[in-house]
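Box S2. Input/output pair 1.
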Amino acid sequence: MQREHARRGFSISHQKVVLEIDFSGSLWGYTEITVVPNNANLRTIHLHARQCTIHLVTVASHQADFVHCDPLAGVNISTPQDCHTYPELKRKIYSALAEGDEGELSIAIPKEVSLRQLGQSGHPTASGILSETATPEPQTPGPSFQTPTGPEFMPIVVHIEYSLRNPVDGIQFVLPTDAYPYRVPHAFTTPSSPDAARCWVPCIDNPWEKCTWEFEFVVPRYLEEPDPLQRSDDPDFGEPHGSIPTVVVCTGDLVEQVSHPNNSNKTIFLFSQTVLTSVQHVAFAAGPFHVYQIPSEPTMEEAAGAAQPVMHAFCLPGHESMLHTSTSFLRLAMNFYSTDFGSYPFGSYKIVAVDDLPTQRFDAATLSLVTVDLLHGDDAIEQIVETRQALSHSLASQWMGINILPKTWSDTWLVNGLSLYITSLFIRKLLGNNEYRYRLKRDMQRVVEWDNGSMPPICQPQHLDPPDSATLPFVNLKAPLVLHILDRRLGKSGTSLGLSRVLPKIFLSAISGELQNNALSTHSFLRTCRKVSGADLRTFAEQWIYGSGCPAFGFTATFNRKKMAVEITMRQDAPAYRAHEHSGVSKMLFKPVPFFEGQMTVRIHEADGTPYEHVLDIRSTFKRYEVPFNTKYKRIRRNTKRYLARQQAAQAAAEGDAEAVEAMGLIDMGFGLEIWENEKERENWKVADWTEEDEQVMSGATYEWIRMDADFEWIAAIAFEQPDFMWVSQLQRDRDVVAQLEAVHALAKQPTAIVSSTFTKTVLVTNYYYRIRCEAALALVQCAIRALDFLGLFHLFKLFLRYCYDPEDPAQDLFAHTYVPKPNDFSDLSEYFVRKSLVHGISRVRFENGKTPTVVRQFLVDQLRYNDNTANPYSDTFYICTLISCVACALVPTASPERGELLREEVRSEQTAEDVNWLKQAVEEVNRYKSMDRLIPSPHNVVTIAVLEFYLLLTTANLVPHDLRVFFPLTREGNYTQVRIAAFDGLFMSKQWYTPAIMRYILAVMANDPCRVVRRHVTRCVCQSLALLVTMGEMKNGPKDSESLLIEEDGSVPEKAKENKKSDVDLMIKVLRKDREIGKNEVLREFLMPIVLAPNVDHEVRWGIIKLADLVLRGVEEAPPKVTIHLPPTPVVEQPPPIKLPPKPAVRPVKTGGPPTRNPLAAAPAPPKLKIAPGGSQVRASPSATPIAPAPRVTSAVPPPPTTKAKPKPKPRQPIANGVKTPQVPKAQSGGMSLNDLRACRNALKKLRLHKNAVLFLQPVDPVRDHAPNYYEVIKNPMDLSTMGAQLEEGMYKDRFAFEADFRLMVANAKQYSPHGTYAHTEAINFEIFFEKLWNRINKTLEVAGKTSESRSTGPQIDTTKQPPSKSTVEVPTATPTAPAPQQRRVVKLKVGGTQAKAAGKAQEKPKAPVTTKTRKPVVPDEAPPPYVDDGSHDLLQEVIAIERERDEEKRHRKTKEVVQDISPSRASGSAPPGKRRKHNVDGDDDILALATPLSRKDKVNASHVPPGTSTPVSEPPVTPTLKIIPPATKSKKEKAPEPAENPAPATEAPRTSNKGKEKETYNNQVVPSKPRQAAAATPLNEKKCRDVLRVISRLPEYPIFGQPVDPVRDGCPTYFDEIAHPMDFGTMGQKLTEGKYVTMEEFVKDAELVFSNCRQFNPPTTYPVNCADAVDKVFKREWAKALEKKLSWVEKRSLQGLMTSLVKDEISFVFREPVDPILLGIPTYFQIIPKKDARDLRTIRQKLDSDKYDSIEAFEADMDLMIRNAITFNGTESEVGRIAVIVRDKYKDMLSNIKCGGGTKRRKEGDGKGTPQPTKKAKLS
């Protein structure tokens, strides 16, 4: 990573940045980068630059060409409105990030600039040579360029002028807003993203690319405008009175501050950083800061003989009083680090407190930006420790983390760990050794809990990426602990030198230049440790650095009197290794350590009180050690007269005997406790003492106590058991705070009266460290049990009584006392922390049923009620927070979930009246503090935060209802950031947050909230909340629902739990995706992608939303790119031309893979008679000219029929009716069922099978399986859905009514056999109800179809019933012939568009001339087909395919909405009104419903102009040849009437479409003239929409074969242009769009359909090209329907919204502003007069307008008229409301007339799509 400059071709030696800052949100200036080439072939310089606008680039003073492209800014997806395409977005973001690594700014070196090479004697500064010990100077590359291996070149200067406006990342501008009017404007660099540095300056954004820096900042002198009166009077008019001048603080040392030479109102700040620094460690802040210079210590200065680094602290106005108390200790930290670890690597240090920093700190070279939350006043207590820890760590990072970097990303643990390690050493000096060791012990316990197999090693050399943000906190926690135990082990090595000798060497090598590029690696660090100490650290590194996990030890100790030794048994376990034991992959990834080796120190305190240390050498998982024992005496102080000894010692100490005092301290820390020595007091405190039996056991013990790992050398869980009296001795006599903590935790597991007394004494003795006293107070909770008569609670009350007024009666029962606290006095900080711990302990006491005792409840309420802080010098805000949290804790019962499930009536008892009363008191007190905090805010509003957490806990426990009014107002801007975060936490724990209104608000916050911290927190909480709600059982069908049964454990539960863990997660995700309010949430689906694709989205918010989409949405899987291989074409065999039959043109057979037979006498099958349309184009029955919806395709099972003579003999099996051969009837219609009825029954059967109540009826009843042995004795005629389906397909139903009868029989059987109220009877009733609704709908549809057919049919009846694409049935009704017998055949009528080239033109000139059929040359397959037998199936195939084409043709015309249709346009196209577009029904399930939808009013008018039997002339649109079979018998009434077919018109006419099947049938080749029909208006071309459609389909994997013209040679189809007269492809269409050759949308779609029809014409069905055509056609139709969707234009919508706004603001409209509420207004009969569906008001109309429910101004006006009409209807014209209604009507009519007059031309222009597009919907922050 450090050698990237070699690959890049250059390095940077110096960079200068000059910026002028405008605090309104912009900055501009330039940067000069000194580039040192290392390659003579360098031609392009790649730099990182995001967000910036580059204006000019010069290289060596020559203007250079450059390309600036931000991949992240241009991320887009194919269908941004589809939320399911988020995987595509994720992939593109990854690609953009990878692309950005190379650099967003590419600069071409001009030809005038030559790269001049230096000789070996070149100037060292210019060449970049630097000795290892030289101090880096400006313009020098630094140590990273030592010993160059190649030639050296002269540096060149790249000058870049750029600007930045409203940046998203890198720079944060904090400005006053309406919500925060008192904010002080300031700006600073922010670590908002990993690549934040490149977002504000062009650079090489690499932590290992270092250079020297110069900075020049131009800022306003003051941010306030000077008073003009003062300007005239005061000579120094530029300084407003009382204003603070603008200050710039930057990385480096301040060189000078000067006034601007041309503008006296501006100031220039110059900084210089002479130490090599990465751009990622450069920062600045500008604003009216207060400055505090941290004073130096004269004594240190005199001792060291050198000046100390200059240190300053800066803060915004209003915080200056807290600056001194928060930062004055930093001088002590600077001196400590400089003395112990080497001199400060830079010249100065600054710390700046700013607002809205996304992290707690941002550490840069010489500068640390910290959040203002770290500042505290003189009265703070808790925050002092946190602030000192954070600020001392920021200073330590200057040595380790900024000056010294990790060599690779895997070395991050070392740099972070060392900075935290030296910080902990300073904390030890600042706060004491006890605090240091206590923190170490606590951190080790956290690591042991964490490192159980779920965490990787802290160092992974194989990982080349930065550490994951999820594991980085663990690394930062474990790394300093590993260094601590390393220091302990090095100290025990041969030289006894630990890290105190290693670290100064490392820091010295960094300053001297010996450490290459100041990059420290794990290997070099361990090598240095080995050199210093001589210890072999390979085993240590493998276990603790490169391995994961922590050991768990179990020790037991017994005394062997014969051997005079203590036998210690050790067992070691590795939980992390056990977790990965059976997975080889996870063992490779996590590298868990199977067992740990090393030495452990055991300290045995023997009978004489002397501690003896022994070392156990651990080399295996189990071993027994014999530790020699030195003392032969028994335990001392074990006699029955110890009270006398105690009294004598206490008396001597009281008289001033110093030796007695010292002896007391050595014997027992409790001897100095006066009240403990008074017998009466002991009784008052209920002090328990050892019994005589205990004394005997204790006197027989040979040692006092044993401590394992006494030197704190292991990060391990150590379980060691010894008697309680030994733990008491360890607690009272061992001075190590860790030993005392271990004793407290061990005794808490053995609750006895002795233990309770011991803990009480520990709390009272002030010699103990305060944290041990706090732990003892909390441990008393374990003794507050009924078995001890709640002795622990008594001791807690007795201890807390010291802070309260004493009871009047000395013998007062503490369980009935009212605890009124004395006024607070927190001067003794130890007592303050003990007092808080006592309150915590009291709140945790519970009865067996999990409830808190009444006395505890009253105690906590009294503490809140009577708290008095008037005379306290310290703030009590955190103490109040403790009280509030304890009240919440005491309110919630702690019954376990298991008991709650099995013993619900016992544990989950209802709230009693006492519980409700106490809850009410607690809520009143908490609300009082909330109100006080609003009036007199606490620091950072911590009391309000505690109140919100109080309500959150109670609502989660279902103690109070979840009231959004508690949380929601505090989530808005204007509240303190942490308050908003706590309020959002409460909001997300409610199931109400994903209601549409709140979901809109949350999405608006994620997208637009000015606070980055809030945006990120809300985004994280969305995902976490869903997981919590599912876990809590708030979601339906959650994982807990499946575990409601009580399962008896059989030993396999753990294994099953492991197996089901993944399935539980999958089930949870399925629950979320199916949830109507989450996975199906319309608001979430609508705004998810716009937020993610917004240019100003925060990167963490973007990833959080993508994670949310992963949870609740099923992503669309992207197909991998396909490689298309063009195989050579199959051989072509010549065939003699067929015999021409003038009266009957040949029909081209469908290609099915086999070659046509070579019979030269037959040109086409004879039975179908061909009818030539006026276009006269060549007629073929093959698929052509029309796109086919993706559905199962009908293919022939036999080879194509051979060409036979004109009149073949009919087969004997085929019936002959009046000389006409009847076509073969499909089996399903053999019973006489019509095609409409068949389709209806199939559709109904499909829906019935999928219904939820259909389970019992899917298959026949099995008496054995279904436990119905006498079923067939009761039910004589059984029926089920599978039987009905079989009978339907076998043609056993003559009509749909027979099908209905069978269904009713099935339901009647179920009702007859199953008694009323049984499951089967209920299911049958529900199933029958569903069938009634479905069947009524089908009947009405078919009846309307029949009536429409009857009213339109004239002349011979033609069956135009369409077939579903997946079925191959043809309806064959019988009819009486009307022509001579020789002509009475089935007539195949083909509609041919103008796409068949030259034949069409000839036919138009001579329509009566016979047509010569051009036969395509056959293609010979690899294998010969079987002999062909003519069984009539081919004729049926031809007819079915043609019918399919006709159906698809109708679907296409419906979608375009330009055809005057005979059915409702919205139903025909499968789309809903604008704004409610539905997915196109590909499967055709509801085709029967669209078959005969009643005509709309407009369609009826248009249809009336077309006489039956006429056709509409059209020009060239491609039309599929459609097969029409003339029925030889009369037509049924319920069949659909024929529709007029379309006839091609000359190409000069406007393109039109027409209804099909309407021409009058004739039995020759003549065409009956028809009257011209009024054509639908053409849609002007909208080029943008057309290009959008092309762009969408171009992303499909099947698109490439249609993207360019067909090349017969390249594509292996030499006969292509013989068969396709009008080739077309999408590339040509795009070119025609560019050249402006399209005028209307119909012309464009005609060419698109030509592409698909050509493909289907040339290629047989089911082949790869046709499948591709189907896929692309499907997407094209979907996108085309969207493009043609009709709705209000943007200008019209905005105009109507303005009208509504004006109308609402008008006072006269108050009557209509809100919906009518009959109850509120006292008019209960309103909805009886005005139907509720017709009720209108201004708010409802505005909502419909905003959600695009109106497709025209007229529709909007109709709703307004309806509103006025309702008012007049209900109130009367002469009423007051009626008069107001008339006035309102006149007003909006006038405004509407203006809109119509001024918008008519504008609307027409908007139709072409070249106007202002409608902006994307965005979530708006309400």
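Box S3. Input/output pair 2.
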Amino acid sequence: MRFGGALQAAVVLATALWATPLAAKKKDHPTFHVKAFENIPRNVNYFSDSDTVLFHDTDANNVYLSHDHGVKWERVDAVPEGRAWLLYMHVFDPNRAYILTEGTTHFKTSDRGKTWDKFKTSADTSAFRGDILQFHATDPDRILFNGMRCDGFLCQEVALYTTDGFETPAKELRSNTNGCWWAKSSDLFTTGSEDLDKNRVLCIVRDAFSPFKQDQRLLISDNFFSPSHESSDIQEFEPNLDMDKPVQGVVNVAVVKKYLLAATSSMNTDEMALFVTDDTKRWHRAVFPASHDDHDHRVLQEAYTVLESTNYSIQIDVMTTRPSNPMGVLFTSNSNGTYFTENIPHTNRNSRGHVDFEKITGIQGVFLVNKVDNWEEVAKKGSAKKKLVTEITFDDGRTFESVTADGKRIHLHSVTELSNVGRVFSSPAPGLLMGIGNKGEHLKDYWEDGDLYVSDDAGVTWKKALDGPHKYEFGDQGSILVAIRDSQEADVGEISYSLDHGLTWTKQALPDGLKIRPYILTTTQESASLKFLLIGMTETSPRWRVISIDFEGLHEATCGKDDMEEWFARVDKDGKPTCLMGHTQSFQRRKKEAKCFLKQEFKHAVAKTEDCECTDMDYECDFNFVREDGKCVQKGPIIPPEGACRNAKPDDTFKGTSGYRKIPGNTCKPTKEMDEKYKEVDRKCSEIVGAPPTGPATDEIEQTRNVFEGDWDGWDKHYLERGESSSTEGETIIMRGRTSTKVGPVYVTEDHGKTWKAPKELEEEKIQYIIPHAYFKDMVFFITSGKKVIYTADRGRTFHSFKAPNELDPDVFPLAFHPDKKNWLIWNGRKCEDSNDCYGVASWSKDGGDHWQTAAKSSRRCEFTGSSAYKYPNRKQEQIICLKHQKEGKAKENPMVLVSTDDWFDNEEVRAENVKGFATMAEFIVVATSNPANETLQASASLDGVTFADARFPHGFDVPHQHIYTVLDSSTHAVNLFVATDMDGGYCNFGTVLKSNSNGTSYVVSAKNVNCNEAAYVDFEKVAGLEGVALVNVVANPNEKTSAPKKLQTKITHNDGAQWAYLAPPADDEFGKFPCHSDGDEKCALHLQGYTERRLRGDGNTYSSETAVGIMFAWGNVGDRLGPRKDWDTFMTTDAGLTWKRVKRGQWTWAVGDQGGIIVLVQTTASSSPEKTKNLVYSLDQGKTWKEHEFASEEVEVWDVTTLRSGGSRNFLLWGKDSEGAFTLNLDFSGFSERVCKYDDDAEKSDYYLWSPKHPMQPDGCLFGHVSQYLRKKADRKCYNDFRLQPLYGKQNCTCTRADFECDYNYELDAFGQCSLVPGLSPKDPVEWCKQNPEAIEYHEPTGYRRIPLTTCAGGRQLDKESRTHSCPGHEDEYERRHGASGVAVFFAVTIPFTLAAAAGWYVWRHWNGKFGRIRLGEQGGTVFEADQPWVRYPVIALSAVAAVVMSLPVVAGAVWRSAKGMFGAVGIGGGAGAGDGRGRWSRLGGGGGTRRFTTRDSFARGGDYTIVDDDEGELLGEDSDEDV
């Protein structure tokens, strides 16, 4: 069928259909022309309203063109052989097409392929998206180009634009994008302003500090993101998608008729939010009806399809079952696209998201759909075979009828089994439909049972036309039907055609006995031509044939007036026209028996309409109403008119829906009877969405207690965090009781523990492990003792199961998850031939476990490393890395290797040998390989999973036998690698944390003597929600004997590990005096419990919460070290650790809710001296004041207090035990506030103030080139934080300093803190930069430095550009004009530097203070040679180096012991860059230490990402290390 414009409305009026007949000699058969091709023709496209057709040979990367409907073909030779990468047709201009290459030179035509012109872009064609070109609907010269620029492994998407059709080079629109679109991307869409329609652009922009899609934002500009006349800032703004506030996580934008849709995602869920606008100014979230018992209505990623919609509504099909056997529900929106009602349940879908749904071209309200008749069986059993039935609607989905032929029901193969191209059933030919199907109760096999059926009354009646399945096409507006038998072999040698609407058929053999396997049968977009194109495959070489078929001449006459009839789209039994969608609809078309052709090529059939009076048939059920027994019954809350019920009481009323609405797009004429029948009625405000609270704030805690049977000692509990895009407000927890020998039944709550239920599906199962999905918290797996795995994908509402491919391996975490694809799973299990002969087996599934394929045998662990977050060309989304034995079986010498695959193990490559382990952390893949000769480890890192580079440790850092690496989490584009430097009997005592550059290859020392325990867990923790803040415990007595107790001291960094400081002790308080006071030093400081001291390893409270930014709690003591537990008190900070205060004596367990607005403290049995309690304390003003609350009448054991880890809940749970047994107690603080806090630009009106964390060791408090600003609720405001509130308000950029640069590719820090070229390597060719930036005039010689990817600094130091410049090729003249100089300027340029160099060298020699080489990590000056004075530059380096050779000798002689500890390694890059993956997980490499115990993901994660640790500058740099260099 047709390509391209098949979906466009038919609007062009033909010339008189009864034009004068043309005389011509009648032929008795069509004419054939055959052309052979070696490769399959793909992407066949007609230029609209012409006989010119082209196709893309994607195997040889060439494009072929024909100007005579396929009779003669030629390669588009303007494009070099093999360079045609993509073929694009202009969507709105029938004369234009584009051929894109992989590079920056492309080709275009504006005359339907007669000529092709070259054009250039400053970015390559993007390898990460398919929609490269975006076209403006009314100005064909306005085009957006979505490209990419790559720097080494890392690629960044960039958008370009042209307003002259690429006559001049495209200009940069915006960098760091994920797609850009014109607002005017549809003929029907308008902003309401001619100027905005012309220029408005929408771009999805990636966050500068995060690679994750959940942090992407939608930005709009009306001047191509350029500075405005009034300001130098870029003109862009973020629209308020959610009514009054922006929404982050935008992943896609789509234009559907007169609507524009934006889809957003969020962490923890795959549920998406759809936001709709009809003008880009006012946006609304698309709202779907409340879920039914038999199916869900949530819109999930890759589980919804926006269907071909009408001019007056959007139609979306949402998948409601498992992906291996999918079904859906079809919804239709109201006229503004906001509220959706259910049209069709149990629609048939396939795994690619295609839906058996098609509208009939040109006829309103008629479409065909396939439903699953045995939907209950399919929903329960994924392997059940679907029984499909075909139905048709003539009233836009309000009612459905069976499809019949000769009085018997037939069923038709549809979109999910597409056997041709374009539309399945219809064409612009009025009322003519064809399809492949069968008679019977349900749809049968296409090949065995399919026959060709034809309808000429828009699907009301059908008749069988030909036996067997066929490909088919319409021509001459339905005057001619063409079909060719479909086959799986090259055995078809004839076509069939009909000239009377399919009543009779004529066969015609292909020329020269040709036999083919048909591939495509198509014609022009209008279906008005007498010419067709047939593509098929033969058994001889060249294999492919393109056959042009011409029916011109089969009829002598051109149709006249008497040959035409007025055909009505719908008639009653008496043949009278009936109303459809409020009007009758008719067309002029040729009578089926007429002996003529229309010969109106490139003209569309035009409909004639006449409105009717409204009847009951013109109304349907409104939003959240469902038809039962002929009436619309309310099933969910009412949507009020705008402004209704604001500040109202629950019993107040408003005029609202009667439960009925006129069908969107219906044009019927109103009548008094219908208006009265369906008029609005009185509704109460308590009935609406977001109903007002039932009463005022009570200022009381509401408690709900639940007691559970069984003598349990504790609870296994899993909070299922909801995402910002979640449509539900539930707070789900899954838990079960436990003792040391047994576990109890599983319970689920959706209301934070107010009510619990024990799912029946789990009652009889022996659940060994409960494993929430690492990325999508709606999904939880229950691993049984056998191979059965039960799971829920909707937070415990429903349960399903699958059979694991192999049994559990007790030493390996069984499941690996993909960060983007919820249903992509890896099972790491084992297979045992007998009890002593077991080996690891990894398997993969793409459908949530319904089907499995073996990935690797003799494997240890496999993991997904592909992710949409990381833009590396070689890192495909399907990438998997496995650790496995080199050989299968029991070979004695069988070392481990690391293999990777991009195609589900059809092919795999060995990436490393002698591997001890690997870890993924943020964008990095780190591998530890062993060197059997010297029994040590070597670390290497990769960004793309293909190329691994050895880690280059800093000068002077030497650990003879490296046995343990621990990869620590980070959020700053840098690997933080812990290397154990002190081992005792194979167990870790302490070690050094090294921090890498942004590609993970070159390291500097971040912290020494970091405490670790026997299992190589490390005492460090990143502060959640803040950049660059972390705490660490170091061993202050590393040189004492191993039998001596460790002297642990706590330090904090506020600049990502560049510098560390002790915590200053708090002031004396009402609890008593502290033993010492200082500003924080090695003799007196606050020391805190670290991770290795946690009461429950991996399950203790973290210092901080992601959304309560800057607020932290910890246990510890004041002194010269961390004391015993009995001396610990509870401390708190609200400024990210700069100052602390004691809030309670002893150890109190804390929980932070409402984004810091509510804090609860309670003494727990395991952590406090009294074993029982009945009181807790809480604060509503960020710890300024505390109130006591008695939660029980008698003292009880309290095991824990918890809330959502995100810190966004106002509910808390106490877990404990009393005389009646184990209990949970819900504490609901909702009664303390009844309104949502609001931010206002007016500081007095706003409920928030802006707070910025301080980085005291950074100039101006800057880190990564900016100062971050966060929203904090004012302590005196009685309101609560919106769950979806984003605390980060904005960032203010700073000027650039040394800390904003790191060593460039192939450079590393030398012993003097300079970035020096690695011996044997060459700098990156700077000319490549010119190629990537074609408009650039010049480039700089490599300086050894480059900007840290994470920095946003502007101005100031530009270390990557402080070198000589050269002209870029082709820009020599422009370079000369820019840099030309007079003779006087040359004189001063030569003379003055020598004079200044001599003076500066003398000054340095006279004033040098003996501190050469003492560079602190991240110090702004870098080294003595990099002072900011403009006269101290490169000439000074030469002179100072001479002095350094002499003067540094005493330093080196006097500090030999320090050099062994890595003195010269403590030089820094002050930054680094990357983003944690949010998993909060340790990854340990190498030998040594005990076997890692098995633990579930949630009990193991600590709610925050690990990050860097400290370097003891006192030890490293000497007593005066705090002085400036």
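Caption for Box S3: The longest strand covers residues 825-834. Residues 1383-1407 form the longest helix (25 residues).
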